[in-house]
Design a protein that fits this description.
Radius of gyration: 19 Å
Shape: elongated
Number of domains: 1
Largest sheet: 7 strands, antiparallel
Structural class: mainly beta
Helix content: under 10%
Order of helices and strands: EEEEEHEEEE
Distance between the termini: 16 Å
Mean pLDDT: 95
Strand content: over 45%
Number of helices: 1
Low-confidence stretches: none
């Protein structure tokens, strides 16, 4: 059984026991979070729209951290203009505990 969950404007495939890296969520390690479900696939088939709206995905925050550093380098030719920046995107790792009906 798996579900497609939405957080922000992004969609993620969630299975029970899987760990998903979401964009930063407020909360501490060990807190429980709920996600809205857009689609559910189980032994009875696929459920979408209103049928899937009757489900929710419950997860537990495992980690709050930052991804690996990404280098951003801006350059303008013939102008001696160069700019080097680094960026580390904050994330929240969530372990999916169950996908259940509301």
């Amino acid at each position: 059984m798996y579900a497609i969950v939405e957080n922000g404007s992004k969609q993620y495939k969630a299975e029970v026991g899987s760990i998903i890296k979401f964009e930063k969520l407020s909360g501490n390690v060990g807190d429980k979070v709920e996600f809205g479900v857009l689609m559910v696939s189980d032994e009875n088939g696929i459920k979408v729209s209103e049928e899937a709206g009757a489900f929710k995905a419950i997860g537990e925050i495992v980690e709050q951290g930052k991804d690996k550093k990404m280098i951003v380098f801006k350059f303008k030719a013939k102008k001696n203009e160069r700019k080097k920046q680094g960026h580390r995107q904050p994330f929240t790792a969530v372990k999916i505990l169950e996908i259940a009906a509301k």
